[in-house]
Amino acid sequence: MRLQKDKDISIIWTSFMLKLIGLWLAADQNEQRRRDFALVYTAGALSIIVCIGCRDIYFTWGNFADSVYISSNNLYLVIVVLKVSILYAHKTEFFKLITLIQENFWRPSHDPHEQLILENCRKLCTTLVVFVIICVQGTCAGYMVTPIIENINKNESDRVLPFNLWIDFPISMSPYFEIMFVIQILCVYHVGVCYVCFDNLLCVLNLHLASQFRILQYRLRYLDAADRDEIIDGMTDTKLSRYAIECNVKLRSCVKRHQMLTNYCTNMNNIFAIMVLGQMETHPSRKFSLVLNFAGTLGQLLMFTYSCDDLIRQSFDVGNAIFAGPWANLPMDKIGSNVRKNLIFIIIRSNKFCFLTAGGFFPVSLETCTSALSTAMSYFTLLKQSSLKMEGV
Fold first, then answer.
1. CA-CA distance, 280 to 69, in Å (whole number)?
2. Relative to the CA of 178, which of 134, 157, 277, 384 has its CA 20 to 30 Å away?
3. In the structure, what pLDDT confidence band is assigned to residue 105 with cuts at 50, 70 and 90?
4. Does the CA dihedral 8-127-320-313 come out positive or negative?
5. What is the per-residue pLDDT across 349-383, written as a single tens digit (0 to 9) for each?
């Protein structure tokens, strides 16, 4: 049986990017050595680009436009370093979660309705992940294209790099210029991979977990799907008792799955809570890069707030799904009463819905997205007014 992840583009690309930074499962010692090398490369690339960013902001301090642009770049670097550090610190727990979801969530279902739920989840994940990857990688391409365009018709001594080095060395001369250009671009693309892969992973996990809650709702609604026609025609006491026993067995399976889903959500929140909390006049090519950057950042924000909101809604709707189930058809004997009591417990538990928090401060939902956009627009307006006042002076 083929795993769902074997044909899911979102899972394939997300796992590929996590392999590039060295934080993914390894099947054997050879793969583990490749993961260790990738992790060392990630640490080296981040160290180089952080040093360049710190020196750049130090030497450009006082120039408002350049300082804002460089500070924006450095903020992305801080977020990337934070994400990599957090996931590396929780590496063992993270690998356990991935193993669990591979064993339980990324397998095809034999039920047509459940398969349709998984297929819709796959399409949504693919759309969101591909869109964000295109925007982020387009932004990285902008950092490469901008100096290439600016260096046209310039002398060798006047050439510029994607990021200023501020060192007393003829870095604009060949072959030093070409070497540093390649190093900086490789670091930029690696930062782009690190920046987007964790949010893509969180989105994929959230949406798949929400889909499992949808499947659980479906199973609770149709505990008696096979016998519903027979109930309408009438049942003897023996058949009715056997029917209650079968419903009780199916309900126990649903309860265990509900417990597994809630525990998985709790563990995922422990790993990603801090990570979730961490979320002018320029050259024309840089403007295009910034537009892609803005689109990618906005899409990224919407992507994981929507997935978190979907997780909240689907975990809460488990209780509502029970009311559409076969509880009214159960006999009033010991087994029937026991099933009803268990259903009540599920309803009570589902009222405490599953969610991911931003550092433990507040649950993340679509309201978080609107609040973040409102705050960002307020800061943008203030920043624009300050820029106009400085230009007037």
1. 8
2. 134
3. confident
4. positive
5. 777 777 777 767 778 777 777 777 777 666 566 65
User: Which residues are within 8 A (CB) of 41 and not within 5 positions of it... i.e. 6 or more apart?
Assistant: 22, 190
What is the average pLDDT across 190-218? 88
Backbone angles phi, psi at 379, to 5 degrees: -65, -40
Distance from C-alpha of 270 to C-alpha of 264, rounded to nearest angstrom: 10
Give start and end residues of each alpha helix (H) in the chain: 9-21, 29-59, 64-89, 91-104, 112-150, 176-221, 228-233, 237-277, 284-323, 334-350, 366-392
- pLDDT surpasses 60 at 279: no
Mean pLDDT, range 40-67, rounded to an integer: 84
Mean pLDDT for 196-203 is 86
d(CA 66, CA 45): 23
Instruction: Show the tokens assigned to 278.
Output: 């961490």
With both helix axes pointing from N to C terminus, report the angle between 29-59 and 176-221 in degrees, rounded to the nearest 10: 120
* Residue 234: both structure tokens together: 């009438």
Nearest Cα neighbor of 321 from 211, 207, 219, 209 is 219
d(CA 326, CA 131): 42
Q: Which amino acid does the sequence have at 169?
A: F
The dihedrals phi and psi of 23, each to the nearest 5 degrees, come to -120, 70
Q: Tell me what the mean pLDDT of segment 213-228 comes to.
A: 76
- pLDDT, residue 163, reads 85
What pLDDT score was predicted for residue 232? 46
CA nearest to 23, candidates 91, 93, 69: 91
> First vs last Cα of the chain: how many Å apart?
70
d(CA 53, CA 73): 8
Candidates 149, 156, 151; CA nearest to 174 is 156
Cα 377 versus chain centre, distance = 24
State pTM to two decimals: 0.73
